[in-house]
Amino acid sequence: MPVVRSSEGVTHEIHGARFVSYASPRTGSKELCAWRGEIPAGTRAPAHTVSREEVFHLLTGELLITLDGRTERLAAGDTVIVQAGAAFAVENPTDRTATSWVTTSVGLTAELADGTLITPPWAN
Which residues lie closer than 8 Å to 86 by C-beta, 6 or more apart? Predict the structure, then answer.
């Protein structure tokens, strides 16, 4: 039985946020990836288009999520389904860190507005 202990999560930082990866090919998952996101107060991550569907669940705090040009305020417990090909942006306008849990399929990439392609190590 594969068990990934909380102390075994691999941490990555990009665009002012921290991603702690738990499920990925590196830990034995063949199809899915899952990670905890930590979005500090005042963080505004750039919009990006995702290549695979994501399930984004907000564990703590509040965020502004923009999906294909429509912005919604999320509170702890809310979930957003981000379809493949959707433009997605995250902003934390509050004064405290928000945490999320994201699940997607192996192989996710994200393309920034300027055409830069990102292959997140926590999703591959």
Answer: 49, 50, 67, 68
Confidence band (pLDDT; 50, 70, 90) for 2? confident
Cα radius of gyration rounded to whole Å, the chain:
14
- The count of other CB atoms within 10 Å of the CB of residue 10 is 15
* Other C-beta atoms lying within 10 Å of the C-beta of residue 1: 2
Give CA 24 to chain center in angstroms.
14
| In contact, 123 and 19? CB cutoff 8 Å | no
**pTM passes above 0.90:** yes
Q: pLDDT tens for residues 28-54?
A: 999 999 999 999 999 998 899 999 999
